Amino acid sequence: MNTVRALIERAATAQPDAVYALATERDASLDYRSLLASCRRVAALLDAHGVAPGQTLSLVMPNGLATLRVLLGALWAGRCVNPVNLLAQPEQMRYVLEHSDCAAVFVAPEWEARVRAMLADIGRPVALVVADADAERLPGEGPEADAPPPLPDALALLMYTSGTTGRPKGVMLTQANLAANAAAIAAEHELGPGDRVLGVLPLYHINAFAVTMLAPLASRGSVAMAPKFSAARFWAQAEGARCTWLNVVPTIVSYLLEGDPPPRDVLQPLRFCRSASAALPPEHLRGFEQKFGIGVIETMGLTETVAPSFSNPLEPSRRKLGSVGRASGCEARVIDAQLRPLPDGSTGEIAIRGPNVMRGYYKNPEATAAAFAPDGWLRTGDLGHRDADGFFFVTGRIKELIIKGGENIAPREIDEALLQHPAVLDAAAVGIPDKHYGQEILACIVLRDGAS
């Protein structure tokens, strides 16, 4: 199973009537037979708009069943998808649409005017399809069409990263990359056809794209698709959709800890909660487990590795608090400034090698060369160490390291100390210039409601 198409077709053959996706806010669902038929119709629609196999299709759409159908239909048909971050600044979004060389853009109605303006002076023809994220039928969607199966090394996903400052970089991921990590996620968490994840994270982020959209294909399970995260609706959505596991980020954990827990019978079907995308403070992890009675599996990954490349074990007794886990679906090691492997216990840069690692950055050979060591290992930019049991501990980012008076200080260590105070909801430490020490530490905190 080395393409997304193969995952879809295997699931549709094995259990055509099983639900793949359902909407949390309305009565709508998509079984695997319907998903495969939808992929064929999307292939015909892309043909009609002149998007040939191998070309890129951008999406400016929020979560919804129609968004899922476009993404998976394009992947099935051998096109490359480019989900655009809806939180990007206008100039960054325009840059992505121009730089990606997309042949068409599927855009939600509320974004149509802004995207049309961005495309006006791009200098190449770009088809525009206006489609609601929850549309039962896409505009122009008609008969089914076949498409040649994509090769495993075909470009499948172009996802731009580091877009909050500077120019975003387009991460090139292949069909084989996507299929490999979908299978790795399913295996790591022992997912099966009876498992269903609550999908509240945006599909334009690699976490949701890989974990909530692709991993259920590998396990032949399902996803309950929410429009977005809502602390007020979260537990009702999980209960209503009969979810068996959760996929969240630390910010969501923080918000949920502020609310009241639902009745225990609501929580009982949930096997575990998976946290990723940023470091989860140990205090929040312990607090979540104590308050809700759901075990938390901390994981870590990058856009460049199709999301997770580390995971704590499914078995609670084998997890390590404060660790992102062991290498999952890949190999990992710690290297020094000269790119040489370091022994266990030594702090250095974490490097990754495996079938989930990107091809490189689109039209950016300099950044691609800088991202890889000469022996092919991907340099993550994360500082950390590995213990004797193979568990990795991340202490910060190389670029975020605070160097005060010659001492290296990891911001995360300061963050975790601050979060132990009962009045602190969130915290972040950064380095600021200092004429005596080179850098001084500035700590920013968010207080809990009512605290002072």
Describe this structure in a few short sentences.
Helices cover 29% and strands 27% of the residues.
First-residue to last-residue Cα separation: 55 Å
- Beta strands, count: 24
What CATH calls the topology of the largest domain is Rossmann fold
Which strand order spans the largest sheet, edge to edge or round the barrel? 2-1-10-9-11-12-13-14-15
Shape: globular
Q: Rg to the nearest angstrom?
A: 22 Å
Query: What is the CATH top level name of the largest domain?
Result: Alpha Beta
Secondary structure elements and pairings:
Blueprint: H1 4-14, E1 19-23, E2 29-31, H2 32-48, E3 56-60, H3 65-76, E4 80-83, H4 90-99, E5 104-107, H5 112-119, E6 127-130, E7 155-161, E8 169-174, H6 175-188, E9 196-199, H7 206-219, E10 222-225, H8 234-240, E11 245-248, H9 250-258, H10 264-267, E12 272-275, H11 282-292, E13 296-302, E14 307-311, E15 326-327, E16 331-335, E17 348-353, E18 360-361, H12 365-371, E19 378-386, E20 392-397, E21 402-404, E22 407-409, H13 411-419, E23 424-434, E24 438-447
Parallel strand pairs: 1-10, 3-4, 3-5, 5-6, 9-10, 9-11, 11-12, 12-13
Antiparallel strand pairs: 1-2, 7-8, 8-18, 13-14, 14-15, 16-17, 17-19, 19-20, 21-22, 23-24
Helix pairs in contact: 1-2, 1-7, 2-3, 4-5, 6-7, 9-11
